[in-house]
Amino acid sequence: MLTTTVCAALSAAGLAVAFLTAFRRRFAAATRIAAFALVPVGLAMSGLAGLAGKIGKAVGTWAADLVLKPTVWAGFAVLAVAFVLYVVGRLAGKRSRGRAAEQPRAAASAPGRAAASGTASTPALGSGTAAPAGQERKPAPGKQDQASAGDDDFSDIEAILKKHGI
Fold first, then answer.
1. pLDDT band at residue 152, thresholds of 50, 70 and 90?
2. Which of 16, 31, 66, 77 has its CA 20 to 30 A from that of 88?
3. Could you give the dihedral angle defined by the CA atoms of residues 9, 10, 12 and 14, in that order, rounded to the nearest 10 degrees?
4. CA distance 39 to 33
């Protein structure tokens, strides 16, 4: 009952301020103030203000138990062990994934896989003409010159980066 009265008084005061703000022709600000002024009475009518009081009481009881009960400290110890196990599991998973990633590279260098890896390096989009089955297309001479010119640009960039120690 007291909570509802306090919330209603806060809302009434807020609406009075909103009315005075609107009287000064600041309607946008008055609308925002009125919106905030209606929150306390809305919380009281929906029962959330009482719920907040119960939550506060529960948190206070828990804090007192935290200081006085050893089982609460044991619970935190169990949570810490669970966290450490989770982190160790993540690290172990990353290591095993790193080793698994190295194995396909070694398998790709096997003689049986050489042909498959050679075809993967060819560009997916060509000049629009399809090569006959079993034959590889060779790049046009102009395209090869452009690729070597691009490599020269990168060598210049590499030299500049090495000069600056990067």
1. confident
2. 66
3. 160
4. 10
User: What HEC string does the chain produce?
Assistant: CHHHHHHHHHHHHHHHHHHHHHHCCCHHHHHHHHHHHHHHHHHHHHCHHHHHHHHHHHHHHHHHHHHHCHHHHHHHHHHHHHHHHHHHHHHHHHHHHHHHHHHHHHHHCCHHHHHHHHHHCCCCCCCCCCCCCCCCCCCCHHHHHHHHHHHHHHHHHHHHHHHCCC
What is the pTM for the complete model shown? 0.40
Q: DSSP state, 131? A: P
Q: Has residue 147 got a pLDDT over 80?
A: no
pLDDT of residue 120: 52
Tokens (6 digits) for 54: 């119960």
Residue linked to tokens 């090569």: 131
